[in-house]
Design a protein that fits this description.
The protein is an alpha+beta fold. Strands 1, 2, 3, 4, 5, 6, 7, 8, 9, 10, 11 and 12 form a 12-stranded mixed β-sheet that branches. A hairpin with a 3-residue loop joins β8 and β9. α5 crosses α17 and α15 runs antiparallel to α20.
């Protein structure tokens, strides 16, 4: 009798609980096990079956209190996980709906889609190429781990004694290195003479700068006279292989030189060379002259010194202390010429982009050019976004009926904004993929114009791809926000009655964007024409001599 009542009571309880639509059969079974556990415990405490059932069901709660009870049990956590899963599934379904709608809209309007994607892609490709160039310029000399503590002393060149003098008299100077570009020596190999780009460097050079050494010892490669470090490119040109460590070279027809190191040709460095010759080679050729330069060559400004300062040392204070050394040691001669000369310290990281700093060891860039190109890239991106907005709002009247029907069908304004934003982001992502392809195809032309050797693989670097993906999403959100808000404002009653014009505010903003776009385009076109005319003038103006009658003789 008791078992029968229990079955009837449980059946009635289950029927009552099914009124809660959130309770699936699995949840209901879990709750029933929970209820039976309560009943068993109460019966063990001395309650009868009927009373235990009433107390247990009351403690468990009604169907409207079930979620609160779930919060106290493991089944509550399971329920919340199920609810999260359903939300994720709903979000997936919503995104799938947005994707179908966006693809359908693009298929129905192929002309508009092509103009918008191709226009954005071409602009973005130009921005990508400019960004590659700017990034490459800004990365010059960034490979040296202690680059922030390395300074060039004097101008592009300085007198011989200053480097060692400053190191010996100022403890904050940890190291000094000597570089020199002259004399340039010929290489005779298999009866052929070549004149690679040479640089004399002392043993400290490879310890101060982090140029990678593929083979050889950084500590000793430039220590002995007659030692040379060659680049892989020069080794391949001379010997047909890069495995040349220990081989001999005949330079200037009489000097027997040993290859003591192999390294890649410096990239993104204001110091350029195909070959490093040990500074001791100069001493070995003429010791008396060399020692005289190191002791009294105060105004023989034909070496370059770099110093590395200790951590936390003040470059400004050191510069103030050494500025008067030239006037102290060679002041009479300088004053007889009415001249003054002061030692300065130039941060190594500023040399390449600072035109006033000068550079006798390699290429030079222009910080003004980098800033101008960055500004051009920003304007191009702004034009692309404005053009995207203008085209999207221009189609607003065509999509007004779609908006009206969706609102009548129950779609909220928030969902409409999300849908149109999704379409904008999808189009910018497609344009970004196309822009990558266009940029890769156009990169050789950029290399030809700029004299660089930027590899197309730079476009696929993880950092670039991540930045592009984030940039595409942000650009899509920025360019799609205004059109989506304008489109979602249409009142369904007005739209379905045929009154589909843009809101007055939207039209004003659109006209303002058109004016902005036209202004920026005009400025850029006029600037391009001005630069073109200046280049034509430089190419066509008479230099004042007949170039066909002038001959340049290399005397090296």
């Amino acid at each position: 009798m008791n078992a029968f009542k229990r079955d009837v009571a449980l059946a009635t309880w289950r029927q009552f609980m099914r009124r809660n639509s959130a309770l699936t059969e699995d949840r209901l079974e879990e709750l029933e096990v929970h209820l039976l556990d309560h009943m068993d415990q109460l019966q063990a405490d001395g309650y009868g079956p009927d009373e235990a059932f009433r107390l247990a069901s009351r403690r468990l709660g009604g169907y409207d209190e079930i979620e609160r009870e779930y919060g106290k049990t493991k089944w509550g956590r399971t329920g919340r996980r199920d609810m999260l899963g359903r939300k994720l599934l709903a979000m997936r379904d919503m995104l799938a709906t947005f994707l179908r709608s966006a693809v359908g809209s693009m298929r129905r309007h192929p002309g508009f889609t092509a103009i918008n994607i191709i226009g954005f892609a071409v602009s973005l490709a130009a921005v990508l190429l400019i960004s590659l160039y700017v990034h490459d310029e800004l990365q010059f000399d960034a490979q040296h781990t202690e680059g922030e503590r390395i300074f060039r002393m004097g101008g592009a060149t300085t007198g011989w004694p200053y480097g060692q003098l400053v190191k010996d008299s100022h403890p904050e100077v940890e190291a000094v290195t000597y570089l020199r570009t002259y004399p340039q020596l010929s290489i005779r190999h298999e009866g052929v003479y070549t004149f690679p780009d040479q640089l004399y460097a002392d043993a400290e050079f490879l310890r101060m700068f982090d140029f990678p050494l593929v083979e050889g010892d950084r500590e000793t490669a430039l220590r002995a006279p007659g030692s040379v470090v060659v680049t892989q490119e020069l080794a391949a040109e001379l010997f047909g292989t890069t495995d040349v460590l220990g081989r001999r070279l005949v330079m200037n027809d009489s000097l027997d030189m040993a290859i003591t190191g192999i390294m890649p040709r410096p990239r993104r460095s204001h110091i350029s060379f195909d070959m490093l010759i040990s500074f001791e080679t100069l001493r070995a050729q003429n010791p008396e002259w060399f020692d005289g330069q190191m002791t009294s060559g105060w105004l023989n400004l034909n070496v370059t010194n770099y110093v590395r300062l200790a951590e936390h040392a003040s470059a400004a204070q050191l510069e103030e202390q050494i500025a008067g050394l030239p006037m102290e040691h060679a002041g009479d001669f300088l004053r007889s010429w009415g001249a003054e000369y002061a030692l300065t310290l130039t941060p190594m990281t500023d040399i390449y982009l600072d035109a006033a700093a000068g550079n006798a060891l390699g290429p030079s860039g222009s910080r003004a050019l980098v800033r101008m190109l960055a500004l051009v890239a920003a304007f191009l991106l702004l034009l692309a976004l404005v053009n995207f907005v203008n085209l999207a709002t221009a189609r607003s009247t065509e999509r007004a009926r779609e908006v009206g029907i969706r609102k009548v069908a129950g779609s909220s304004r928030g969902l409409l904004v999300a849908q149109f934003m999704f379409e904008a982001i999808l189009m910018t992502l497609l344009a970004t993929i196309l822009a990558l392809i266009v940029a890769a195809v156009a990169l050789p032309l950029l290399n030809t114009l700029s004299g660089k050797t930027l590899p197309w693989t730079d476009l696929l670097a993880p950092g670039w791809l991540a930045a592009l993906a984030v940039g595409a999403v942000v650009a899509g959100m920025m360019s799609g926000l205004y059109p989506s808000v304008v489109l979602s404002r249409f009142a369904p009653v007005h739209v379905l009655k045929g009154r589909r014009g843009l809101p007055r505010a939207g039209g004003a903003v659109r006209r303002g964007l058109v004016v902005l776009q036209f202004t920026i385009s005009s400025v850029m076109v006029l600037g391009t024409l001005l630069v073109h005319s200046q280049i034509n003038f430089m190419l066509s103006a008479s230099p004042g001599f007949d170039a066909d009658e002038v001959m340049v003789v290399d005397t090296r």
